[in-house]
Design brief:
The complex is a heterodimer of chains A (144) and B (49). Chain A has 144 residues and is mainly α. Helices cover 57% and strands 2% of the residues of chain A. Chain A is flat. The chains are: A mainly alpha (144), B mainly alpha (49). At the A-B interface, helix 2, helix 4, helix 5 and strand 1 of A face strand 1, helix 1 and helix 2 of B.
Chain lengths: 144, 49
């Protein structure tokens, strides 16, 4: 590291300083500054990727008979609605001064991602439990 | 035809569904659509105000 990777540890220092600033900001903000709209948008993109892959596998009409995406469509739309509602609330002028609402919203922002974990995990890789993302199977990070 | 939505060290999104699709296991696809949808719904429920 001191010879090739990061002589003088300058990158390490800079990144450490950056992370300290991020941590300071997160600890200091009254309302957790979570950009929920972007997450909602990305969940929508993940859904579109599944539709693309499914369509590429054959006749879309025939595939739709075999694979019903409506459950996932509804869930994704519901998630988008809820993130929008929460961001609208966070944006309201009167919201920040209401300590009760702020505490409730912060607790929800803290907790909601835990719901993305499926207890069983992925096939053959039960330690990867998040339904939104996992390392690719072919990345060599199989951890068997 | 194996299409895989991940290259190099990239993460896979909706991995349960996409990896099942990669091996054409449609029962597994259905199972993971259900699990994925139900997890997203649970997260949406926590966010409800």
């Amino acid at each position: 590291m001191s010879t090739f990777g990061d002589p003088g540890f300058r990158y390490h220092t800079a990144i450490g300083q950056y992370i300290a600033l991020v941590a300071y900001r997160l600890a200091d903000e009254k309302v957790i500054p979570f950009d929920l709209l972007t997450l909602g948008r990305y969940v929508g993109y993940f859904f579109r990727d599944v539709v693309s892959i499914l369509n590429s596998k054959g006749d879309p009409w025939e595939l739709q008979q075999r694979v019903n995406l409506s459950d996932l469509t509804d869930a994704t739309n519901l998630f988008s609605q809820r993130v929008k509602a929460m961001e609208d609330l966070k944006a309201k002028g009167s919201f920040r001064s209401n300590d009760t609402y702020v505490a409730i919203v912060n607790a929800k922002q803290r907790d909601f991602q835990r719901a993305f974990l499926d207890p069983g995990g992925l096939p053959q890789r039960p330690f990867y439990k998040n339904v939104l993302y996992a390392p690719g199977i072919d990345t060599g990070m199989y951890h068997l | 035809m194996l299409i895989f939505f991940s290259l190099g060290y990239a993460a896979v999104t909706f991995p349960g569904i996409i990896e099942a699709l990669a091996v054409d296991d449609f029962d597994l696809v259905k199972e993971w659509i259900k699990k994925t949808a139900s997890a997203i719904r649970a997260a949406a429920e926590i966010l409800r105000i």
